[in-house]
Amino acid sequence: MNLLLSLIGLGALAVFLTYRYLIYPIFFSPLSKIPTPNPLCYITDHFSRYLSWREQEFDWLLKYHRQYGPLIRIGPTSVSVNSVEGLRQVYTSLEKHPFYAQFTNYNGMPNMFATVDHQRHSVQKRVLSGIYAKSYLQRSEDIKSISQDVFDQRLTPVLGHLADIQRPVNVFELFQFVAIDFYSAYAFGLDRSTHLTENHGHENRPYHAADSRYIYESKDRRDHSWFPEDECLALCRATAKGIDEKQPAGSTPPIIFEKMYSSLSAQNPPLPHDTILLTCASELRDELIASQEGIAITLTYAMYHLSKSAHLQSRLRAEIASSTDINDLSSLPLLNALIHETLRLHAPGAGRQPRLSPPSGLTLHNHYLPPNTSISSSSYVLHRTSSVYPDPETFNPDRWLDASEEMKRCWWGFGSGGRMCIGNHFAEIIIRRALVEVYGRVETWIVDEKGSEQTKTFLAGPRGRRLVLGVGRAKGQ
């Protein structure tokens, strides 16, 4: 009798599992009518994860969006959307997927990027949004001081020295240095900023070029993490001490840190001091990594394409020469077109950005998506929509000189909606100024592009973390 009951129980369980994980997702799920590239997608997410691991997911998504249209099913409860309508509906207000929780720092301390809860994210964003606003950054005397220090006193001498001794440079690494120096100055004040640019990545170690045969890049194992967690937390502690003791701000104030620290310190009931410091450190380190990688990736590929075209360099140099305000470069059409096209073809954050459909579900492209459906878009796929961007694999900045509204709406260089990159205007200031400093003074050419191929991963940098360019004085410089 017991054996019979056990067999009946096992049979019932097998029937239930077969229905739940095989029959229902294939035949009865509300997602069943959405085109699916592979039958395995009906029953498992592991097929798309496998493709992601193999760096084949982006091209797989691109192929089947072109074949099936703007909405495809990529898992039992997952869809991919590739349309302006999708961006508008999905990325305006939907909650982030739990996928983002992995991006915490300090053993689980959250930051804005890793925060899934929409309300908590909004509270923290309100604290910092003012100091990242375009209008604030454009009129900020502190940004002008930081720009002058980082570019005029650090980067320009390095570029001139490299040009004079004809020494090539790994531009990916060099502009990681520039991004970290600039961000740390804005976060902690110029007096506490890093000095990686002029010190070749080594703090407190001056840069010497005894042998011009070697490219300008770090060989020190310690530099695999330019700004580790303990250094960020130590800077937060030192900066907090300076604020608490009302020490003079120095050359520039610690703008980002002071904003966060003051807001968290004013909460009621009060937070433990260590919690405040760790929260600040987690946010600032996340933003620093985003700045370091995003800015360096963008500049690497912009300079890659410029280095392949002397004519494009000449056009940019002529436009730079016509500029009257080094602190406001947003009106230079070719410069901005170059940046837009680089971010279109080489977006640093190329991976899918998953969101969850609301408790009431969502109707998208005439298909009902039930609650908790994972919905995602990828800038890699969006930016290769051939109906919007003709000949999408070709680097053509001129397409942006007379861009259609559809091109602008489909461009997703910094995301969109309430969760778009908070530092987009900050990054653009650095990218514009860097290109002006380089191509207003020197010309570049490719020496070694081995390792410069862009990965097809969530954060898409050069595979070998390098692009080696030659540097020479521009005519008249």
UniProtKB/TrEMBL annotation:
Pfam family, one: p450
Single GO MF descriptor: heme binding
Names of required cofactors: heme
Residue intervals passing through the bilayer: none
Keyword set, alphabetical order: Heme, Iron, Metal-binding, Monooxygenase, Oxidoreductase
Residues binding heme, per UniProt: C421
InterPro entries referenced in this protein's UniProt entry, alphabetically: Cyt_P450 (IPR001128), Cyt_P450_CS (IPR017972), Cyt_P450_E_grp-I (IPR002401), Cyt_P450_sf (IPR036396), Cytochrome_P450_monoxygenase (IPR050121)
PROSITE patterns: CYTOCHROME_P450
PANTHER family documented for this protein: CYTOCHROME P450, CYTOCHROME P450 12A4, MITOCHONDRIAL-RELATED
Family: Belongs to the cytochrome P450 family.
Protein name: Cytochrome P450
